[in-house]
């Protein structure tokens, strides 16, 4: 009974729906040109001439033979073009192996396609399609099975079982997901600190040689890392990824420094984080006459003499400045760590922890 | 003994094997079902094949590479044959990648085969998607298979990116750095996700190993599963064919699987493999030895991602300056969120397009005969706009190279790109739609009036005409065999209300089908040919009288 009423309902909804016709907005063309049927088949030369057929057979066999020769050549090349200290051996090995293997593959490929195109029958065959949906009988049988399964299990009848099953299915993946939490630690305040501390000397990257103010002439640029940061450190790359600094000396009169940052430079020597505030590429290019720093990844451009403010590109924030001075021996040192997180922006970077 | 009568000949090895297999796996039934299945033939149907074969090549070459590669980020001192990097510190991953290149015979070749086939895989899959889109092959009953194909395309990009990072060279390390920066820009959870991915701070010691697990296990397994679903649906639906004489929605025209298609498709695998091999033999790709191992400080100018990531990188570059803002104490990185959301929306629209179009046309019939792109002008125009949008983003990833190569101002190149991103898709839409409609008009004219013969005749009263020749019925049918839709009005439903959905659908149907060229009808053609016949007799008469 219920099934019957459902069916009636289904029919009613179909009639009331906006799409009254199967074709939707399609225009039925009663005056359409009549399909003349498949174009007549064209007979190939290989179908009507034994000579052509034989030559096609020879061509296919030749291509397959070529493939054999190619593969054999590749085997020969493997042993006869070994690798050595001389790097040109890599080129020869790659080239001769590659040529042999190419022939080995192409011979088979072109041969097989040539075979199919010239010697296998080429009349197109037409076949009726049937609708993707099952026939009404099949559907009825399928519904019968579903109903039987439903009856036997009581899936719709036993609400309590069904709902608790949904609940358990919803919850069971959660422990699996939480297991992933140990993929990495909570970042904590790691993004807010770098290797720089009060008094850390500035050293050249990658040699680690400490640098004196007198080494930095006007217009010169140095890639800087904190002294004491070397590959033996366990977190070498992680620290370097935050602590990398560009050191530039400009004519002090060209520097426009804000009041609070007046003491952060030393006689025109300024140190800025090298890590772009966009997505973290190293801002590696310095244009001397404009004093612009350029990130090669997405072209964010920073104005060195104006606090490294963004003048172009997708970045928004200025590069963080490292306050520097010199120690008694004349070496450049950091006055402190960076006063803000370096590198790409993140949600709570300005929240004081 | 009737059994022995039907049994295969004792001496035939082939028959013996066939019998053995059939008695154990029922091969005869399978072969009977599929052996003579019809496959239509067209060059554009091979794009998907190219993608699939590239994937097989990827599996083969990738397996070879795993034998020699070690996804460890432990630092080692390089002691291999490549002199310029001698004694430098690098990760084990980079070292083993160098060793594959310089110390394994055929190693460089296989690395290049792997990389080139990856590029080809995504390219072929993308072109295949475009073919499916522009010919309307995504229509019922294939909407779901479009989605499966879309997932495959995304998986292909994911496989590409995870693999790109594995050599742990400077270039790919910077690529990861950009990913890290993008993740960190996501509100609330960005830094946590980044920490989970990298196992702590960037770059950490684990990310290469994790990407490796994804790259060689999870992603290829998913690709295989979705490929199987894709092909399974292909068998259920049977392949589409282009519309034309003898080809309709109710039949399938082509060649039988055995032997023609087996030979062609099987041969084609070797051709694809061969083409990848010859490219890999002669053209260097990703010369990691030039870049050095990853170090967060240096970077080379003019860096470019693999082509299929380019559009995402371009989206990052085209974000306008200064759109990051503070919400109280919190940083909202719109310069990352906008490109991210823009890309996701674009992909989302691609994924659901079949359902949108189906909702508008309301056509519930099965479609197996493909459209010529011109015969679905609005769809083709939308596709062209999408391609243009993608292309501008893609070109956007090379703003610096465009500026340096063509000696232009970088700022102006970027500004041009930003404007183009909005403007060009609109232009592409209108131009494409107009071109399609014009082509349809031309088709209709040729169908009705025939082909221009180039024969100019002067009639007795002085008029010059060009004689048109009628088309043969097959050529004619190619020009008129397409589906014609017309816009609808918003109609009230059973309750007598005009719903918002109905209004939207009506206006979208107007947008789609307002400009429509209906196919030439039998009557129009008959009238024209009648007219032509009259003209022809006039011409004949004129010729007679001039004699």
Keywords:
heterodimer; A: 353 residues; Rieske Iron-sulfur Protein; 5-stranded antiparallel β-sheet; 4-stranded antiparallel β-sheet; 12 strands; B: 547 residues; mainly alpha; Cytochrome Bc1 Complex, Chain C; two-stranded antiparallel sheet; two-stranded antiparallel ribbon; 20 helices; globular
Helix/strand layout:
The complex is a heterodimer of chains A (353) and B (547).
Chain A lengths: L1 H15 L28 H4 L1 H31 L7 H31 L6 E4 L7 H18 L5 H13 L1 H6 L23 E3 L16 E6 L9 H8 L1 E5 L19 E5 L11 E3 L4 E3 L6 E3 L5 E4 L8 E2 L1 E3 L5 E3 L19
Antiparallel strand pairs in A: 2-3, 3-4, 4-5, 5-10, 6-7, 7-8, 8-9, 11-12
Chain B lengths: L1 H5 L6 H13 L1 H8 L3 E2 L6 H21 L8 E3 L11 E3 H12 L3 H29 L7 H23 L4 H15 L5 H9 L8 H31 L3 E2 L8 E6 H26 L5 H4 L18 H9 L6 E3 L2 E3 L1 H28 L7 E2 L6 H20 L2 H7 L4 H40 L1 E8 L5 E6 L3 H8 L19 H14 L8 H25 L1
Helix pairs in contact in B: 4-6, 4-11, 5-6, 6-7, 6-11, 7-10, 7-14, 8-9, 13-14, 13-15, 15-17, 16-17, 17-18
Give an overview of the whole structure:
The complex is a heterodimer of chains A (353) and B (547). With 353 residues, chain A is of the alpha+beta class. Chain A is built from 8 helices and 12 strands. Among the domains of chain A are: 46-118; 190-334, Rieske Iron-sulfur Protein (3-layer Sandwich), CATH 2.102.10. Chain A is 36% helix and 12% strand. The longest helix of chain A has 31 residues, at 50-80. The relative contact order of chain A is 0.07. The model of chain A is unreliable at 1-19 (pLDDT under 50). Chain B has 547 residues and is mainly alpha-helical. Chain B has a domain at 35-358: Cytochrome Bc1 Complex, Chain C (Up-down Bundle), CATH 1.20.810. Chain B contains 20 helices and 10 strands. Chain B is globular and about 100 Å long. The chains are: A alpha+beta (353), B mainly alpha (547). Chains A and B meet through α4, β1 and α8 of A and α5, α6, α8, α9 and α10 of B. β1 (125-128) of chain A pairs antiparallel with β5 of chain B, so a sheet runs across the interface.
């Amino acid at each position: 009974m219920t099934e019957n009423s459902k069916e009636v309902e289904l029919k009613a909804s179909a009639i009331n729906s906006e799409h009254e016709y199967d074709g939707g907005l399609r225009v039925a063309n009663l005056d359409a040109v009549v399909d003349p049927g498949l174009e007549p088949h064209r007979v190939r030369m290989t179908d009507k001439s034994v000579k052509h057929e034989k030559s096609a057979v020879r061509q296919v066999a030749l291509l397959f033979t070529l493939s054999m020769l190619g593969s054999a050549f590749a085997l020969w090349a493997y042993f006869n073009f070994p690798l050595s200290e001389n790097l040109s051996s890599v080129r020869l090995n790659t080239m001769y192996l590659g040529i042999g293997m190419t022939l080995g593959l192409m011979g088979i490929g072109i041969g097989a396609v040539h075979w199919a195109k010239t010697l296998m029958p080429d009349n197109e065959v037409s076949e009726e399609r049937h609708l993707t949906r099952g026939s009404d009988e099949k559907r009825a049988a399928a519904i019968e099975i579903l109903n039987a399964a439903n009856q036997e299990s009581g899936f719709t009848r036993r609400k309590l079982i069904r709902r608790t099953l949904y609940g358990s299915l919803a919850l069971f993946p959660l422990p699996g997901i939480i297991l992933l939490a140990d993929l990495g630690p909570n970042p904590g305040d790691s993004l807010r600190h770098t290797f720089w501390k009060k008094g850390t000397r500035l050293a050249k990257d990658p040699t680690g040689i400490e640098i004196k103010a007198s080494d930095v002439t006007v217009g010169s640029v140095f890639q800087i890392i904190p002294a004491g940061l070397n590959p033996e450190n366990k977190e070498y790359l992680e620290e370097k990824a935050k602590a990398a600094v560009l050191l530039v000396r400009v004519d002090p009169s060209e520097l426009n420094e804000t009041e609070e940052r007046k003491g952060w430079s030393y006689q025109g020597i300024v140190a800025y984080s090298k890590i772009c505030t966009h997505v973290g590429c190293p801002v590696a290019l310095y244009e001397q006459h404009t004093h612009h720093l350029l990130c090669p990844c997405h072209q964010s451009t920073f104005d060195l003499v104006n606090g490294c403010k963004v003048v172009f590109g997708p970045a928004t924030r200025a590069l963080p400045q490292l306050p520097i001075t010199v120690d008694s021996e004349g070496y450049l040192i950091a006055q402190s760590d960076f006063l803000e997180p370096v590198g790409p922006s993140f949600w709570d970077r300005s929240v004081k922890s | 003994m009737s059994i022995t009568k039907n049994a295969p000949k004792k001496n035939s090895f082939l028959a013996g094997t066939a019998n053995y297999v059939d008695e154990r796996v029922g091969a005869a039934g399978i072969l009977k079902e599929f052996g003579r299945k019809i496959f239509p033939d067209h060059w554009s149907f091979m794009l998907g094949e190219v993608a699939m074969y590239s994937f097989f090549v990827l599996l083969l070459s990738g397996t070879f590479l795993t034998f020699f590669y070690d996804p460890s980020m432990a630092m080692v001192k390089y002691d291999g044959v490549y002199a310029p990097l001698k004694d430098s510190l690098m990760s084990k991953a980079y070292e083993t990648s160098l060793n594959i290149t310089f110390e394994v015979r055929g190693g460089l070749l296989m690395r290049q085969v792997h990389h080139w086939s990856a590029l080809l895989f995504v390219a072929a899959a993308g072109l295949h998607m475009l073919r499916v889109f522009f010919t309307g092959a995504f229509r019922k009953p294939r909407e779901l298979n479009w989605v499966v194909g879309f997932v495959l395309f995304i998986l292909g990009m994911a496989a590409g990116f995870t693999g790109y990072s594995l050599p742990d060279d400077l270039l790919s390390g910077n690529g990861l750095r950009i990913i890290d920066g993008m993740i960190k820009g996501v509100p609330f959870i960005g830094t946590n996700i980044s920490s989970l991915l990298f196992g702590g701070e960037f770059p950490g010691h684990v990310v290469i190993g994790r990407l490796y697990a994804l790259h060689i296990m999870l992603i290829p397994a998913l690709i295989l599963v979705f490929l199987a679903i894709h092909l399974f649906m292909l068998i259920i639906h049977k392949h589409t064919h282009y519309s034309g004489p003898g080809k309709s929605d109710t039949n399938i025209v082509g060649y039988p699987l055995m032997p023609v298609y087996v030979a062609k498709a099987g041969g084609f695998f070797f051709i694809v493999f061969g083409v990848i091999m010859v490219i890999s033999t002669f053209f260097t790709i990703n010369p990691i030895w030039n870049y050095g191992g990853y170090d967060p400080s240096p970077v080379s100018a003019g860096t470019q991602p693999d082509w299929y990531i380019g559009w995402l990188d371009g989206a990052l570059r085209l974000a306008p300056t200064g759109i990051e803002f503070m919400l109280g104490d919190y940083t909202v990185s719109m310069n990352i969120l906008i490109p991210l959301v823009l890309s996701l929306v674009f992909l989302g629209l691609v994924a659901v397009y079949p359902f949108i179009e189906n909702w508008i046309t309301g056509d519930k019939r099965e479609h197996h005969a493909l459209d010529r792109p011109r015969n679905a002008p609005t769809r083709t125009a939308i596709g062209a706009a999408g391609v243009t949008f993608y292309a501008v983003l893609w070109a956007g990833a090379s703003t610096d190279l465009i500026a340096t190569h063509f000696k232009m101002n970088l700022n102006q190149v970027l500004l041009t790109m930003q404007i183009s991103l909005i403007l060009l898709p609109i232009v592409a839409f209108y131009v494409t739609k107009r071109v399609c409609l014009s082509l349809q008009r031309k088709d209709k004219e040729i169908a009705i009036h025939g082909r221009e013969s180039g024969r100019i005749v002067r009639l007795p009263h002085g008029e010059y005409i060009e004689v048109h020749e009628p088309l043969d019925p097959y050529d004619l049918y190619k020009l008129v065999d397409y589906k014609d839709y017309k816009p609808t009005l918003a109609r009230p439903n059973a309750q007598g209300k005009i719903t918002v959905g109905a209004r939207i659908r009506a206006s979208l149907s107007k947008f789609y089908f307002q400009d429509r060229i209906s196919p030439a009808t039998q009557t129009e053609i008959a009238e024209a040919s009648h007219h032509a016949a009259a003209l022809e007799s006039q011409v004949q008469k004129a010729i007679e009288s001039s004699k």
